[in-house]
Amino acid sequence: MLIELKDTTKIYNQGKPNEVTALSDVSLRIEEQTMICLQGASGSGKSTLLAIMGCVFPPTSGSAAIAGKQLSRMPDRFLTIHRRETIGFIFQQFNLLPRLSVLDNITLPLLPLGISPPERKARARKLMEHLSISHRESFPAGQISGGEMQRVAIARALINNQPIILADEPTAHLDSRLSMEFMQIMADLKKEGKTIIIASHDTLVSEHPAIDKIINIKDGRIHVP
Amino acid sequence: MFLNSWSLGLTLAGLIILVLGVFACRTAIRVLRHWNPSSDTNLQITLENEIWLASTLVAYGLGFQILTLVLFVLAADTFCQVIVGAMCATGALLANNFGMPALLVKIAGVFLYGFWIVLHKLDISSETYPLVKIKYIYLLLILPLLFADITLQTLYIAFLSPDIITSCCAVVFGSSAETGRNLIVGFSQTGLLFLYYGSIIVLAAVGIILLKRWLLPLAVVFSAGWLWFLGVATVAIISVFSSYIYAMPYHNCPFCILKPEYHYIGFALYFTLIPAAFFGLSTALVEPFKNRVDLAGQVTKYQRTAIKISLIFLLLLAAISSYHYLLYKISGGES
Amino acid sequence: MAMIPKGLEKQLNTLDFALSSLWRRKLKNLGIMMVFSLVIFLLGSFQMLTGALTSSADAVLENTPEITIQKMSAGRQEAIPQTYIKKLNSIYGIRAIIPRVWGYYFDESTLANFTVLALDHNAMPNGSKLNLTLSDGHFPKKTETGTAVLGGSVQDILELGDRRVFSLFRPDLSLKSFQVVGIFSKQTDLLTNDLIVMNVDDARDLFAIPTSHVTDLCVYVANPTEIETIAKKIAGLLPDTRVLTKSQIQKTYQVVFSWRSGFASICLLTALVAFAILAWDKASGLSPEEKREIGILKILGWETGDILAVRFWESTLVSALAFIIGCTAAYIHVAFFDASLLKPVMVGWSVIHPPFKLLPTVTLADLLLIFTFSVLPYLGATVIPAWRCSTVPPDSAIR
Ligand SMILES: Nc1ncnc2c1ncn2[C@@H]1O[C@H](COP(=O)(O)OP(=O)(O)OP(=O)(O)O)[C@@H](O)[C@H]1O
Ligand SMILES: [Mg+2]
Fold this sequence. Notes:
The structure holds three protein chains of three kinds.
Chain A: E1 3-12, E2 20-30, E3 35-40, H1 46-53, E4 61-66, E5 69-70, H2 76-86, E6 87-90, H3 102-107, H4 117-130, H5 146-158, E7 164-168, H6 176-191, E8 195-199, H7 203-206, E9 213-218, E10 221-223
Parallel strand pairs in A: 3-8, 3-9, 6-7, 7-8
Antiparallel strand pairs in A: 1-2, 1-4, 4-5, 9-10
Chain B: H1 5-34, H2 42-79, H3 89-93, H4 99-123, H5 132-158, H6 169-173, H7 189-212, H8 216-246, H9 265-285, H10 296-330
Chain C: H1 6-24, H2 26-62, E1 67-73, E2 76-78, E3 80-81, H3 84-87, E4 94-107, E5 112-119, E6 134-137, E7 147-150, H4 152-157, E8 165-169, E9 175-184, H5 189-192, E10 195-198, H6 200-207, E11 213-214, E12 216-221, H7 227-237, E13 241-245, H8 246-284, H9 288-299, H10 304-337, H11 364-390
Helix pairs in contact in C: 1-10, 2-8, 2-10, 2-11, 8-11, 10-11
The complex binds adenosine-5'-triphosphate and magnesium ion.
């Protein structure tokens, strides 16, 4: 099992007046090479769930095992190390560094791994070719189109060959053609063996044929209709 | 003698190190009081972040300490101009009772902070942070040394006055016994050289054996050997090699070799000797941490690296120290 | 590539990123660097200026005898009879006593001031070495009257060219002519630029000093540790004289320098504190953009330590560059512009010697000292802000 959550609870600002229980007692299991869609209203806890699955922070209580490691009580440093080996992120606003070139943006996750510049370049070029953005290699990431940004973000999520890809509202800023294109890329990646989890309320995503399962979240709980 | 740019520079550096140290110790106290790996409270997260702060502060402190060590010796070297009878740093350092202790405390500081960083690296290599308590108790124990360092330094500067008459290196380290204060008596040059090169060979051999096969008693011998070698090498540099560097048989001084006239060769000597001794010493010192949860692998890894580094520096030291000696012998004495 | 260990490669990568990060915030970093360079420039000029002054003072002192005796009358110096030398015969430990005429000659036609020195150089303990300081010729022999050795600028001011004869006025305005028998070499310009060396008899004649009188007596002592005792004995035997030891003169210089340099250091330190506050402020003010960037890096797998390393490299690069710029500018300032910006602070340094070219000798020690005064506080001031910004939580990037 690649991802296994058991009674996972996340409380923000615990013990303070602004305490928020974003997730309560979520249990789920996700197998390898599947594509999952997380659905739910705004504020239901999708992003929080993704963050836990993405080893961004450990759950407040309950257990979360990601790619064979228990997250609870793991110091920040080791969460980070585990995260960079297993998780590729694609964010809603793409979260690229606008003044850095496309190539440098894609290779950002490789710097702390001590990978040499030539190898970084080689890996990034291969991905850029695959995603047909090679012609934008030295453009600043802030000066390319939304669709291109999306591809750069995908390339960055794949650069370290992580087995899991987490995407938070990836199609929110794309038109339907680009959204379909994005889903096609994801479907291809799934075929290559990746596990993909997409949080989205876009029907283009949830109704895509490659989606294996839809998980509904409501007020921080998994909702079975 | 405070109104002098060297004194002010030393004091400034000392104060900066002290401030860094105090901040690091604040973290140490907080960690020792509140550290609780099984909790996920904000405090624990803050502490995890503060561990980074403490280690960064100590790392900077170590860097600055090495710098002040050099600065201190060079400052003494300039102070000698105003002190009657002093011709180089030796005389200036002996001008009152605080010079040499201040120097020794500074050197000890370099070793102790360095060892803390080793401890820290080992600690954060394990998910359980097994050394966290030891590490911060140790850090708190270093703090008095920091205070001692700056106090001795300040006292040294304060009591340094141009009216004091002191001795120069020729008197202190010279082999002519005419003027009493002779620090290094009873070492014959050949005996000393024999000890020096003998120790180098033995240390290298033990190190290589340890790299092939780990034997605890041998590791202890290795580290103890380094402590011994640190002394032997210092004495050898003072009483044998320095005079070949100066090309003057009766000039024996540990500090003059740091001067530009001798191409700063002293720095090369001390900056290979000290790290070599540090890594050599730490090899056995980290041994007790092997039986901590999941630290054995990391400790072994560190030990291997440490042995390798110490051997490389040993080789460099042997080469650099022998250079002038051989040059002198080959060119046939006077040249 | 295969030979570079992972840890080192990682450091290189962070260095690389730090460079590009500095470049992306050119304006801000350039501003800091300029202020920083300026501080280092001031510090450096100052340190190099004192260094150059000290070394020229040392050069002056090197040829100073261990003890100088001058006759005092009514609080003013006057000529000392050479017979005083005999009175000192009883003191044990004196190597040599050399009568000397040392004075200044004011040339009214060119308004120039020359230093006139006359002594029997063969009697000096290191006298034979002195010939090396001449580019050609020899020192006037004891019997050779009417000869002189000139420094470079004396030759220029008197517009001698190839002529070997020149004249100076006696106090009664009669002319005394000299034959040039030697010229000082350029290397000793510092000391010999305005110097005219002649025979003691000629000097007496020129300045109208009574026969067998000189301006001062130079005493050379065999054992340096006995200088003080010998000086005391001389003062006892010759109550109407002022006895100056080399170390007293040296101390006077040192005290003047130490005090001045200490005072100026404190002034500069204030500037430094202001700068450190600026550095702290700049380093701790995290813009939302920077915060976002760090959040992104952290979620992409950068550890807190990696961000710290980037910050470390950034401040190291900024300070290293500022250090190089500042020190180079300082060197140029002192060597080619005679430290003209700092001269007002060091007013009075001309006590040492009439104007000469400042030649700063930059040693590792000087650089280290400048480093301690500038880079160290800067790095120290940026540690905590750097840590602050490295602790931005990774989840700030996904909100
Ligand atoms: N860092 C935080 N501190 C405090 N509360 C938070 C934090 N992040 C999220 N929350 C709260 O937790 C709840 C769940 O938030 P989350 O971002 O997971 O929702 P979401 O499903 O992703 O919403 P959206 O579709 O709008 O992105 C919300 O009520 C939110 O206000
Ligand atoms: Mg969300």
